Structures are given as structure tokens and as C-alpha cells.
Amino acid sequence: MPPPNLLRRTLIAGLLTSPTWSSAQVTPGVTDSEIVLGQSIYLTGALAELGQDFTAGASAYFKKINDSGGVQGRRIRVITLDDGYNPAKAKENTAEFERQGVFSLWQYAGTGTVQEISKIAEEHQIPLVAAVATGPALRALSRNWTFYVRAGNKEELKAIINHIDTTAVGIERAAVLYADAPYGREGLAEVEKAAAEKNKKIPGAVKINLNGDDAEAAAKELQKLNPSAVIMVTAPASSKAFILQARKLGLKAQFYALNAAAPIGTLTEIGEGANGVIVCQIMPNVRNAAIAVVREFHQAMKALGQGKISSASLEGYINAKVMVEGLRIAGRGLTRRKFVDALESMSYFDVGGMVIRYSRSNHEGSRFVDLSIVSDNGKRFVY
Fold it and tell me: Mind listing the domains of the chain with CATH numbers?
């Protein structure tokens, strides 16, 4: 008879390699009946409106899937914790998720946050899916366990620079207002790079706090530059504060905003002053029911009892569709590695009017960018 320790090791090895040992018993966050995801996102603070909308849209799709029996018979459950746009808090939340045993990290948002959490995802080999971060330097790292869905700042800012270059506005008289945060500083660098590709130079840039409490000073500093256009790489709170101050000062310039800088709720609060602002869109027109994913999104939000419709909530919905498709491809014998392989196999996934492309060397998903003009006192985007 073999020694007790050897017998014990042999029994354990047999259990782990036995074909009857299900992945639900060895993969964190996976049971026979559910898949658990951990989401750390800003539900309070300067970007709260966006975080709440992302969460609402995703919840609508997950409810639809759960109501129809789940994925491979497993319901999806999301544990959501608020990080207030604070990377340190997001790291605490992630440690808590790992203690609880989630299958995947899900829909974290903010360049600074994703920069930190993607390192953890890589080290611990836990997927981070639908990361809402647009910084070009971060995305260029091509980490194996992090996946994006939306287009990044690089694509948005190129679209803005191309538009300015083909109008009477002129790049030589375009200034940049950027958030005093990693997101803003990277955005400024990308604007300068995009302008340089056209042998042009941005004449000036002014920083602003995320909460916009220094908006009056920033507006006055920009006014001295006498710009014909202002490219806003800002947060919703700083966008609102700046536009109100700029209109008050009579700053005559065409305002351009990144998608994250100007959600519809913020523009509505600005009111008349928001009219004419050009905003990047990285999702299909949320009001165009002729687009299949938009139509089903409206139906799902109605089923969830959500009256608010926004581009950010559509984004959350599409993010959830991508997550579920990866889980579906991975199959019943779900492991983290199989899930990552499944996502990387999605070379062409049409969510219903928008295409997501992944591969082993590309985790960026979509490159869709459109420009819209704000009208109706901040209540509507015209495409």
C-alpha cells in the first residue's frame, strides 16, 4: 500500500483530471446555475451619470438573457461596487471580488482605473471585459486579459481633427481644454499627434479640474487664445461648468467634445448653451429604431422599467451582448482561458448594426465613430 501522503496526492490528481469533475467546481464564479461577474464603476462623483447609464443598459440585456434561461443554462449575476472614479478604490473592490470568487471583471471605467486593474487581470489571469477606457497609451499595451468594446480617444480625436481640417475653422486656431487627469493628458497628446500628421500644430491648451470648479479661470485663459474651435477632453461636470462660463464670457468658438465629456443628461442641464456643440458618438444613433440593436435595446429597457434612454445605456447594453456572446462560444465547460479564447475568436460579431472584431493581437472591438450636433437645448443629437 502506498504511503498516506502519496495516496492523498493520487486521489486529488484523479479528481482534478476526471472527466466527471465539472468546470463549475474549479472555476471561480461559475456554478451549475450561474456565472458571477464583478463590476467596479463610478456611481457617484463627477462621472456618476455615465456609470449609472452603463450599468442600467447592461442590466437590461442580462435580464433579457436570464429571463430566457441564461447562457448554457446559467444565469448571469453581477456584483456592482462604486469606486467614484478612484483607481485606489477600484483596486479595493477588485480584491473584494477575488475574495468572493467572481468569474470575470466586468465594465470597469476610467483610464486611470483600467490602467491599474488591467495589470491585476494580467497577473491573476482573470478576464477584464468591456473596459470603458479610451487612452491610446493604455490600449497600445495590448494586455492579454483585457478587452474593450467602444472606440478609443485616438479614433474620436482623429475624427474631430479631420472635421476641423475640412471646415473653415482651421486647426491652427483650435485650442484644447483637457481634464487634469490621465484621461485628459493622454487626450491632449493624441490631439497634438493627430494635428502633426497633417503638418499642423495646436496653438494652445488649458487644463481644468474634473469637477469644473476652476471653469471660470479656464474659460478666461482660453479666451485669451482667441480660438475658432475648442476640443474638450473633459468629464461631464467640467464640460458643463466650462460651457456655461464660456457662453457667459461670450467666447466665440466651435466646441467639440469627446463622447465621455458630454452625455445627454449633462447637455440638458446646460440647456440653450449646449446648442451647436459637436459631440463624438461611439455607438449607433440611440433614437434610430431602424437599427436592429437600437430597436431591441429600447424593448429591453422598457421591460426593465427604465425610462431614460441614452447613448451610454446603449453602450452598456452592447457591452453585455459582447460578454454573453463570448460566454456562449466558450460553452458549458466554462473556464477563464476558454472564455478569453472565445472572445479572441470573434473576428466579426455584428451586434445588430455595429461590428465587433477581436483577435489574438486585437482586443479593441469597435472603431465606430460618428459626429453629432447638439440641438433642442441639449435634448437631442442631430447626426
Answer: 21-152+290-356 (3.40.50.2300), 153-281 (3.40.50.2300)
